[in-house]
Amino acid sequence: MTEFTIVIESFNLTEGQGPSRWLTSLESARALARARGEVLIADVFGAPEFIAMLARDYPDVRRVDVAGMKYDEAKAIAAHVAFGEFVLFLDGDCVPQPGWLDAMLDDLRRHEEGGAAGYTRYDPGFYGSLMSVMDFGFFYPLESRPARCYASNNSGFRRRVLVEVPVPTGEMRCLCYFHACVLERRGTPMRLVPAARVTHETPAFLPERTRHGYDTIAAAWTDPSLPERSWLALGVLSVPLFYMRDVWLDWRRTITGYRALRLPQWQVAPALAMFPLMRLADVVGMLKALTSGPVKGGWGGTAFGARRVSTPQGAQGA
């Protein structure tokens, strides 16, 4: 029996990611999976030359054809066809750090329910630290505890849990926060595993921030239980409320987490001053969401020049 499956998606390639980081992630996963597990590619990209490269250079990697599907849908199908008892998600723009696999599996073996939320941060540096707080601030303080959110690019579950409690559907690119809330309400919350670390390729500023702003509103559309949902009745006048909430969280999380980020203490004050300016880009995405309404599939995919792919009749191994 295969102990675990590492799932890598090719979704980021549809958004313009270069092949170098993706191949690094794949090579890392293959090295970890030798003898004990398998690597499965949820292939949204579906380009003929990409498929040929995988068949030629990586015959030990299993490919699942999910071309045209959304980010969460592709991962859900991969979980259903995985051979492993444990399913570990590792995005193609993330590279696992030493100890990642053991930390994930040790946590999952100890628990029958819920899931393991590994720690994701962007590549080192001042800009990477700021963006880490803005996108992955829920990790701070970085300590073992129940996690109200997780990063889908670095998470693990018993396969049975994903089948019983699948990731919900909605207007966001990724619904990991909503899924974590569902698991929490079920009494089987996610668990933060600080030792399961990956470094994420640092994204371009404007596309990432505007997408995040859209998802801020989409999260309130998707989950009726969020207190912020009531703000939507204000229309565009709700934007200052979301903006001020996010800046406040940035400040609090930086003060709590700067050591985990390895941010020098002298850079904390400049970081706090930068967040209100950087969050103005999120406002663009918020206004887009509130003035145009839900966009099928969320603000992602082809929104920033992604490659369009056809939708197959079904997903199949290749």
Descriptive report:
There is one protein chain. Strands 1, 2, 3, 4, 5, 6, 7, 8 and 9 form a nine-stranded mixed β-sheet that branches. The relative contact order is 0.16. Helix 9 crosses helix 12 and helix 10 packs antiparallel against helix 11 (268-278). The protein has 318 residues and is of the alpha/beta class. The two termini are 20 Å apart. Helix 3 links the parallel strand 2 and strand 3. It contains twelve helices and nine strands. The chain has two domains: 4-203, Spore Coat Polysaccharide Biosynthesis Protein SpsA, Chain A (Alpha-Beta Complex); 206-293, no CATH class.
The fold-level CATH name of the largest domain is Spore Coat Polysaccharide Biosynthesis Protein SpsA, Chain A
Radius of gyration from the CA trace? Answer: 19 Å
User: Please, how many helices?
Assistant: 12
Instruction: Kindly estimate the percentage of residues that lie in beta strands according to DSSP.
Output: 15-25%
CATH architecture of the largest domain: Alpha-Beta Complex
Structural class: alpha/beta
User: Which word captures the global form?
Assistant: globular
Low confidence ranges? 297-318
Helix-strand string: EHHEHEHEEHEHEEHHEHHHH
Reading off the top of the CATH hierarchy, the class of the largest domain is best stated as Alpha Beta
Average pLDDT level: 89
* Number of strand elements: 9
Number of spatially distinct domains: 2
Q: Largest sheet at a glance? A: 9 strands, mixed
Estimate the helix proportion, in percent.
40-55%
Instruction: State the end-to-end CA separation.
Output: 20 Å
Q: What do we call the CATH homologous superfamily of the largest domain? A: Spore Coat Polysaccharide Biosynthesis Protein SpsA, Chain A
